[in-house]
Design goal:
CATH class of the domain at 91-138 and 152-308: Alpha Beta
Strand content: 5-15%
Distance between the termini: 70 Å
Shape: globular
Mean pLDDT: 81
Helix content: 40-55%
Low-confidence stretches: 77-86, 111-116, 138-150, 403-407, 965-972
Largest sheet: 13 strands, parallel
CATH architecture of the domain at 91-138 and 152-308: 3-Layer(aba) Sandwich
Radius of gyration: 30 Å
Structural class: alpha/beta
CATH topology of the domain at 91-138 and 152-308: Rossmann fold
Number of helices: 38
Length: 972
């Protein structure tokens, strides 16, 4: 990046700001930009986008053109591309293609926005894009003790995507997956990627929607990419251009594995494998709904799996604010802008208070639709999901043209019922054929069959005119490619298709597909559309099929439970039948079960216990996660009641972890006061994680914390001013880019443990010298960190090094030789030679493979009783008689379990993390009185060889329901 123009741009902006007399809040308000965006633009720490420069110029009453000139000079793409200039003849085409991508994807369009005015159908992506949270299971193993869940890292999209060459991005429909790809494509094409994604600078994006590609038969080769997405520049593409880019500078964005027919997903994966084999340097992101592909579907190809998290309440507030800001930006009427301010304020309050709206607004799609309906209805909203869809359909099918006084824009007119009937026919065909788009000829044939029964429509024109009307006027259909028709979103296809299925009495079609994830919404909505007797038949049939099919039983029974929330009227005996069946799956015991239940909606909370009495720790954790994942006032009230019953006398990491995670989903101050305060008061040693500025401010209502972690952009002053020196005993600081000094730690006399992770500005730990600190953990710290001060920690007993250091071996580790615990993470690549210098070691964790010499030295440690191992097969492990507790975590299915009795004959407990493979524990019966914990395995062989209560499986497996008897008066 050319720093001189960037510095001049920042100086010019700061000068204009100071001359304007505006406060920072005033500048934010005028520009409708976030505080971080404004701050980075003013201090020059990051190149702002062109839209940001324009917004700031307008807010300051300045001409944006001179500022944009500086912006173009500072653009990192220019320098990057000049350093990697394409061959002569390709550069001009690449420039045109980048502009095409930026223009093609630079507007965000969501159904429901094109209401009474044509200029409301889209808004700038740069102004409206919201960075959502992505979750990732930790790849590196860090032992957490028996019974703990594997750690899950949740970060904003920019941080989560950084440095990941291959990503499988999972998310529910409408969760923002496609919008994220759209934003990445535009940012890469225009050189406006944030600093975190600097490794993508200079890359050329290809956006490949699979729903379009699979219809064309064979998936395309690189030179066919532009042809298959119908790009108008395809015929100008120079020979070898795509091959050259994929070999070095391509960013391939593959959208919608879930929209590929199930039988074609294997061939889609093969296509991806072939591309990756041919072009190892291309960056690729693939999206899918979570239930469409199994966990680890692309794992062998080195893909990292990320999951789009539902929008929390803070995200929803930001989205609503940006939506209205974009609407105001497009309005030239002062009265309308003032009205939009009022609408925004009202909607912020309404969404927080209304349970159904709060639940619906957890995805960008539905949040945008709610904003649009709220604006269209002048501040009034329907209640419930089905009413919301019905209102949206009414608005889209009729009200837009009617309110604009347009009678026959496509040469014909239809009533709402007529339009809905024809759309139902198309939707019904799509769900019956498990498609998301159809040939135009198919659509015409379906309409042609329907028109004879609709004389008032057929009198106006033929099927061709009717289809053009539905595409052009309803806002529900679109043409993604030539001769192709699809619904603007799958939700409306399912809504209309379910209505048609009920009217056609297609009960057997629905039940026969109920196990398929793509039919879940169709069945829920079918129950909602059905008359009471039809709903009873559907729900009873779901239960009956679940009783008969053990493999599909959880999905079918829980789907029946979810559908109860949609039934307008249902017989009490049917409800009793369903509640009896789902009792086999409730309460949940794991994160996966909790999220599966949360997807069923707020109604499922009625089946969950509101007290922790009688629940095991894993059940309490999963119930908490279910409640905060559902969110809204209903989920919040449930959590409030449950939290009052949580034990206050004993610590357990899992419920604490979930309560911390739930804090981000609600108002920080309210959550701290209502839910965290009782917990911290009853048990001050509970750990609390602080991740946002709102949470930091909310600490004022809590008692002094004993164990606290700070995550994110907090400064040294923020941390020092929010911990109590005489109370804090455990302090963790994660990803704190502004922390460059540890001098404040010297003022914490009772500190027992310090954890430092990702503190990019910290250069040394000299401030710790001389402190009586027993526990120190360094995780993912900068390569420039110097740790000579380790030798000056006289009380240090427990040291964890999950970071790269410059040592060749442990001979160079200058630290107190009475160390009792040492943990070496995967990034610590030095040899363990020299470990015999620490004869007092009792607990050792090693994640790298060991040679014979290293093993022998470890075996010589006289007091070592606990050993944790990562990527080791145990083939060369010598007998270690002192080891009583062994932790093993590896993705290698070739772990030599049969050598454990020989190597560790005195073992008392074994903790085995066997994610993604199935161990055979039969050889372990040779060790008497051994307790085994198997975590996150796909299963286990040899379990029958062990007495009851000696092998713990986590998550705990579900047993078959004890009874499938039917309640009174129910006949299936």
């Amino acid at each position: 990046m050319d720093q001189a123009p960037l510095a001049r741009l920042a100086t010019r902006l700061r000068t204009m700001w100071l001359q304007s007399g505006l406060t920072m809040s005033g500048l934010q308000h005028r520009s409708q930009l976030g505080r971080t965006t404004v701050s980075q633009a003013l201090n020059g720490s990051r190149l702002p986008s062109e839209a940001t420069v324009v917004a700031l110029a307008r807010a300051l009453g300045a001409d944006p053109d001179p500022l944009l000139d500086l912006h173009r000079q500072a653009s990192p793409v220019k320098a990057e591309r000049e350093s990697r200039r394409p061959p002569q003849g390709m550069e001009q085409f690449e420039d045109r293609y980048r502009r095409f991508v930026a223009d093609m994807h630079g507007k965000l369009t969501v159904v429901g926005l094109d209401l009474s005015h044509s200029d409301r159908g889209a808004w700038p992506l740069d102004a409206a894009y919201l960075s959502l949270e992505l979750a990732q299971s930790a790849d590196s193993w860090q032992p957490q003790g028996r019974g703990s869940n594997p750690s899950v890292v949740v970060r904003r999209a920019e941080q989560a995507l950084a440095g990941q060459p291959r990503i499988l991005l999972k998310g529910l429909a409408g969760s923002g997956k496609s919008t994220l790809l759209q934003w990445l494509a535009v940012a890469a094409a225009t050189g406006t990627l944030p600093r975190e994604l600097g490794d993508l600078h200079g890359r050329v994006p290809f956006v490949l929607p699979l729903r379009t590609l699979v219809r064309r038969g064979r998936l395309p080769q690189p030179q066919e990419f532009l042809d298959d997405i119908a790009a108008p520049l395809a015929h100008l593409q120079p020979d070898g251009w795509a091959d050259s880019l994929l070999s070095s500078r391509a960013l391939v964005l593959v959208d919608g594995v879930d929209e590929v027919p199930r039988e074609q997903r294997q061939s889609t994966r093969l296509w991806l494998e072939q591309l990756l084999t041919a072009y190892r340097d291309m960056r690729v992101i693939v999206t899918s709904r979570p239930s469409a592909v199994p966990e680890g579907w692309l794992g062998p190809q080195g893909f990292t799996e990320l999951t789009v998290q539902p929008m929390n309440s803070a995200d929803t507030r930001i989205f609503i604010s940006r939506w209205h800001a974009a609407a105001r930006h497009g309005s030239f009427n002062d009265e309308e802008r003032a009205h939009l301010h009022d609408l925004e304020s009202t909607l912020q309050t309404t969404v927080r208070a209304d349970r159904d709206l709060a639940q619906l607004s957890t995805t960008p799609l539905m949040c945008a639709l709610i904003c649009a309906l709220h604006r269209e209805r002048r501040g009034h909203l329907p209640h419930g999901r089905m009413e919301l869809y019905a209102a949206a359909l009414s608005m889209l099918l009729v009200r837009r043209d009617h309110e604009r006084g347009i009678a026959m824009p496509e040469g014909m007119t239809m009533t709402e019922a007529q339009s809905a009937r024809l759309l139902q026919r198309l939707a019904h065909w799509l769900i019956r054929n498990q498609q998301t788009e159809m040939e135009r000829g198919t659509a015409l044939a379906l309409l042609n069959d329907a028109l004879p029964a609709m004389p008032s429509v057929s009198a106006q024109g033929n099927a061709e005119m009717a289809l053009d009307h539905l595409i052009g006027r309803t806002g529900l259909l679109r043409v993604p490619a030539v001769d192709t028709v699809e619904f603007v979103h799958r939700t409306f296809q399912d809504y209309l298709g379910a209505q048609a299925a009920i009217e056609c009495r297609d009960k057997h079609l629905l039940i026969n597909h109920a196990h398929d994830d793509q039919w879940e919404d169709v069945i829920r909505m079918a129950v909602a559309h059905a008359r009471p007797d039809e709903a009873a038949e559907l729900l009873s049939a779901l239960i009956e099929r679940g009783d008969q099919e053990e493999q599909n039983r959880p999905r079918l029974h829980l789907l029946a439970a979810a559908s109860l929330h949609y039934a307008t009227e249902i017989h009490p005996d049917i409800r009793e039948l369903i509640e009896q069946r789902v009792s086999a799956w409730l309460p949940p015991r794991s994160t996966q079960e909790a999220e599966r239940l949360a997807a069923l909606g707020p109604g499922i909370l009625e089946l969950l216990p509101r007290t922790s009495e009688g629940l095991k720790s894993d059940e309490v954790s999963a119930v908490v996660r279910t409640a905060f994942s559902i969110g809204g006032d209903h989920g919040y009230g449930f959590l409030q009641q449950l939290a009052t019953t949580l034990p206050g006398t004993a610590l357990d990491i899992r419920p604490d972890y979930e309560l911390n995670a739930g804090w981000e989903k609600f108002n920080a101050l309210e959550y701290a006061r209502d839910i965290l305060l009782p917990q911290q008061t009853a048990q001050p040693d509970r750990h609390l994680a602080v991740r946002t500025r709102e949470q930091l401010d909310a600490l004022a209502v809590l008692p002094p914390l004993h164990r606290v972690s700070f995550h994110g952009p907090f400064s040294t002053e923020d941390i020092a001013s929010h911990v109590s020196p005489e109370h804090v005993r455990v302090l963790q600081i994660h990803d704190a880019a502004e922390v460059d000094s540890l001098s404040f730690v010297r003022d914490l006399p009772n500190l027992q443990e310090l954890v430092l992770s990702g503190c990019a500005q910290l250069r040394h730990i000299n401030d710790l010298a001389g402190l009586p600190l027993p526990h120190l953990r360094l995780l993912q710290m900068p390569d420039t960190l110097t740790v000579e001060a380790l030798a000056e920690l006289p009380a240090l007993k427990h040291l964890s090094l999950y970071t790269a250091l410059s040592w060749r071996n442990l001979q160079q580790l200058e630290v107190h030789e009475e160390l009792t615990e040492l943990a070496l993470g995967p990034s610590f690549s030095a040899s363990v030679t020299g470990i015999s210098r620490f004869p007092h070691l009792q607990n050792l964790i090693v994640n790298q493979p060991l040679d014979d010499v290293e093993w022998d030295e470890i075996a010589s440690l006289p007091r070592l009783t606990q050993l944790g191992l990562g990527d080791n097969r145990l083939d060369t492990t010598p007998p270690m008689l002192s080891i009583k507790h062994l932790n093993l975590s590896t993705d290698r299915s070739d772990l030599a379990i049969d050598r454990i009795p020989e190597c560790f004959p005195n073992l008392e407990t074994l903790w085995l993390n066997c994610r993604n493979w199935t161990p055979d524990i039969t050889p372990l019966r040779a060790i008497e009185r051994l307790r085994i914990s198997l975590v996150w395995g796909k299963g286990v062989n040899g379990l029958d060889a062990f007495p009851d209560n000696t092998v713990d499986l986590q998550p705990r497996p579900r047993s078959t329901p004890p009874s499938l008897s039917t309640p009174k008066n129910i006949r299936l």
